[in-house]
Amino acid sequence: MARLDVKKTYKLYIGGAFPRSESGRTSVVNDAQGNLLANAAKASRKDARDAVIAARKAFGGWSSATAYNRGQVLYRIAEVLEGRRDQFVAELRATEGITAAKATTYVDAAIDRIVWYAGWADKITQVVSTANPVAGPFFNLSSPEPTGVVAVVAPRGPLLGLVSVVAPVIATGNTCVVIASEAHPLTAITLGEVMATSDLPGGVVNMLTGSVAEIAPWLASHMDVNGIDLTGVADPELAAALETASADNLKRVRRAPEVAVDWLATPGIDRLTDWLETKTVWHPIGV
User: Is the sign of the CA dihedral 81, 167, 39, 182 positive or negative?
Assistant: First the structure.
């Protein structure tokens, strides 16, 4: 008798756990040939609110950890991802229909990207902080601090693009709520499994799968979200609406790119500095 495969239903990743959507909804995910690959939870407004609560709860501990420690945690994520490298290659081949060589290139680049941002975690402060000259007997020092809870609309690329937008957010001490690529949601939850088995505290990264058009407006208008990355928003009208909604509490907004992003290219530090606030302190010079 022929054996039937057990098709997986991918859950959400919120607060370090893997709950089903409170709505009970799922969507079908097909492979590159149009065959059923798995089912994915379809997040609702309530799931988005729960993810923001988890991210805010985790922010205090994560932002107060040393930058060196955050770098260690990111490096641990890369270690665990390296151990599951073959699984991610297989998932990319199934979902995108690409060759083994191309899938391996993207997975290796994703691992290397996490290591790259891990290295920046305890160096970005030295690069962007400054001692300011002032006309008076004062020290005037400007240093970066994390923005807070950041909502991220992940790009279509199922792994490399995802880690390229998430890693700089958490490397700088922020926590995030991520809306995974609608076209390729499965690797986002598998990456959540990697994070759950590494040293990353629950709630630092929260993964939602489902409709960007349905979930993103609630995150853009949420008063406890401090920034939003629109990299994965392909619809210009939706992007403009999300920017408008974000203005209510003066969120930091990273706009959707106007041209396609080459995720294999070495990134600059702009994705790190996007989610940092500058704090300037005046201190009298002792006599």
Answer: negative
**Averaged pLDDT, 107-128:** 96
What is the DSSP secondary-structure string of 29-64? EE-TTS-EEEEEE---HHHHHHHHHHHHHHHHHHHH
CATH of 9-257+276-284, one of 3.40.47.10, 3.40.50.1100, 3.40.605.10, 3.90.550.10: 3.40.605.10
Between CA 75 and CA 25 the distance in angstroms is: 35
Full strand arrangement of the beta sheet holding 130-131: 130-131, 138-146, 276-284
Torsion 80-82-83-87 (CA) sign: positive
Q: List pLDDT tens digits, range 15-44.
A: 999 999 999 999 999 888 888 889 999 999
Question: What is the pTM assigned to this prediction?
Answer: 0.93
Where exactly are the structural domains of the chain? 9-257+276-284
Q: Is the pLDDT of residue 223 over 70?
A: yes
